[in-house]
Amino acid sequence: xxxxxxxxxxxxIDSVPVRQDQRWETIIPPGIWFGTVLxxxxxxxxxxxxxxxxxxxxTTRFKTQQAVATLHHARKDCVISGVxxxxxxxxxxxxxxxxxxxxxxxxxxxxxxxxxxxRTVAWQMRGCTLSGPARRLYxxxxxxxxMGESFLGPDAATPAAPSGTWSARDIECFHAxxxxxxxxxxxxPTVTALARRVGTNARxxxxxxxxxxxxxxxxxxxxxxxxxxxxxxxxxxxSVSRVAQSFGYQPAHFSTEFKRRFGHAPSAxxxxxxxxGD
Length: 278
Prior knowledge:
Blueprint: E1 2-6, E2 9-18, E3 23-28, E4 31-39, E5 42-46, E6 50-54, E7 58-64, E8 68-74, E9 78-87, H1 92-106, E10 109-113, H2 116-127, H3 132-150, H4 168-183, H5 191-198, H6 202-213, H7 217-234, H8 240-246, H9 251-262, H10 266-277
Antiparallel strand pairs: 1-2, 2-9, 3-8, 4-7, 4-9, 5-6, 5-8, 7-10
Helix pairs in contact: 2-3, 2-4, 4-5, 4-6, 5-6
């Protein structure tokens, strides 16, 4: 699980494979909690809500003044992923304001279906490719957006999505495409074939992938290939040819692209590793 503390909030993004009937317990610390499940199916038992079933699109908002034991039960073999945000007691008023706290006093918990916009925001948080301070600030901003959506309530009208915003279904397709590309880096499918495999069209995939992950499909694959190749060398590989072939490159082309991305040839990195190992 990735845990990021930013702007008085704790943002948690998790994706974990589970087996059917697997059970586990977590302790939820005090605070206000917001979150949604993006993938997977499980049952959850807590003291203040009881038994609830969770699947893609399920959402919760609750406030607890003490640590609470939560029991989880996987309903099938699957990957369970979700995004949750906690606001600690001493940050509540500063983060969400007095009006929202007043609402929570009258309705301390809510379980239901996430709005399309909040679900899209959660997918964007999971797919964020930024790092360092930029990642922390991006996730904090998106966490506030997701929390704001939860106060609209299940019957409130969801604001119209701005031009260029992708639906939750579209974003699921883009993430599925990204997973396929990462699994098949050495021989990735064409954009047309990839779009067919995830259930969308090539134009939408090209535009949405770039919007969500910050790079066109081809550039994403190229960058990840080179990043993985660099990690392979750093792990001890001493043959430029073997690294190049592992990621679908000819050695000369690989060396050129590697130098363009990292500022030095792969052979220089290999040489430096050897000297450091002596």
